[in-house]
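Exercise: predict the structure of this protein bound to fe (ii) ion.
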Amino acid sequence: MAQQEFTDAIAMLKADHRKVEELFSKFENASGDGRKQQLAEQICNELKIHTMLEEEIFYPALEGKIEEDTLSEAYVEHDGAKVLVNDIMAGGPDDDYYDAKVKVLGEEIEHHVKEEEAPSEGMFSQARDTDVDLVELRDQMLARREELLAQVESGGLPPAQPTVVTPQAA
Ligand SMILES: [Fe+2]
Ligand SMILES: [Fe+2]
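Solution:
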């Protein structure tokens, strides 16, 4: 069963982090437009699902229980990444800046993941010191992930929606 794959919500989110890091490094070493596009789209779908799981389930459960700044910054960082995710999904390897966009997205995510996983000060470490039921959150996220994966299969996820940053009209 999928449930036994991760001991709790934090283990599940960390496994996602490792997976996406691996995809970014595969992209760096990839050659051929088809392969690059396939990896970039996989990265974007992984990130869309991961940010939705965190924003719909994990972050709200920590509201009022960990430092407010930690959560606020995480939401803003997610919104920053969504701009590039949507841009990359809308484009292709022939576009100017395509590789640069994927590379910079990887750097943004690397920074964000560090903030989540940092020892003692990081979000996950703070979460461990609360009374939040991390096993229950894992189960909620696993169920939601199944729905989102089904959506990916049946036509794809809609563009990522900003949560706290207001998009400016052109
Ligand atoms: Fe995360
Ligand atoms: Fe996050």
